[in-house]
Give the backbone structure.
Amino acid sequence: MSNRRLFVSGVAVAATLIAAPASRAQGFVEAFGREWDVNSSIGTELRAFPFAPQYADQADRYWQPSTQFESEIVTEFGDGDYRLTITPYVRLDAVDSARSHADLRALNVLRFGDGWDAVAGIDKVFWGVTESVHLVDIINQTDNVEDIDGEDKLGQPMLNLNFYPEWGTVNLFALPYFRERPFTDAESRLRGPVAVDRHKASYDSPMNEGHPDFAARFSRVFGDVDVGISHFHGTSREPRFQYDFARNVLVPHYDIIDQTGLDLQYTTDAWLWKFEGIGRGGHGDYFFAGVGGFEYTLYQILERDWDLGLLTELQWDGRDLDDAPGVVSDNDIFLAGRLALNDTQDTEFLAGGSLDWDTGAISFGLEAARRLNDDWSVEVESRWSFDVPSDDLASGFRSDDFITLRLTRYF
């Protein structure tokens, strides 16, 4: 079946689900003889690229429609001591076959204990406090075909033990299987200057994806300060790229690394101070990276219920790009504003961008979201770049500015 026919079929299924009342979906899973809590969403998205692609092998795609589906299905058993969670995710893209994909964001059993709990299966775990870069967030692999901003993650197989003594929280992770980062193909937009052949990936470990990874985190609240200290040993979620001259493609290589992280958040009145820092070995010489700044909130501006948050963060990364994966946020400043109207429609706007002190490159983004009613929401997202020199790592996306309109139905 062609990608366009697959997309049309997906739209037909989406239309059926949108037309169906929420009670019908709930009744379907209750037919299995157990009470299930089901929260699902299905959306249609139109992404527009106003400029022609930068590279000859990229298709001339100015309009890129797609549809996406996600559901969280939860049930408890064993007198409430166990919880089963299933979170499937699917995207069907009408023109970019590499962006059509499916994933289990979660498929796990949570066991509740006295002062502890445990998760076995596939799950997503987020670490971090800053807005612009999430340095300490290392458990899950980035879903790079969903978007290139690093916010979307694949589900990670794990055994996770959590303890809650009076002196803090301890999280322990055994990660038995590594998931490679997905990449778009040569015809895709947002792919960079050279296509990536992810099927030829290589590893430091002879066990490849089967190398066991381990992680631990300790967190505690000290008055107004939230502190998190973490350590990870295993296969790097960031690949290095080796250039294949014969085929003119990049081949990912995954190193074994050790990464120690620190995240801090200090809250005082209208100020929120944030910091994330890491030290990493395994990518050449041991290096440090950090991002830190603040968010200051102006409440009830213009004598309305509106709140305006002003964000500033400084980004620094000391890695040697000859031995470590490339990174854009190595010496940048991030400035943004977040406006919440605090209305019944949960209307919010976020606008901001980064300036690279070394190259002068500027990236700018805008996000807006509004709930239309209890079942529908609309979002607008755009991303733009300016004055990006050819030697900047972001130069491969100079012509891939875009605007996205997303309409989502919840049931």
Summary: The two ends are 29 Å apart (CA to CA). Residues 5-20, 22-29 have pLDDT under 50 and may be disordered. The first helix runs from residue 3 to 19. The longest strand covers residues 63-77.
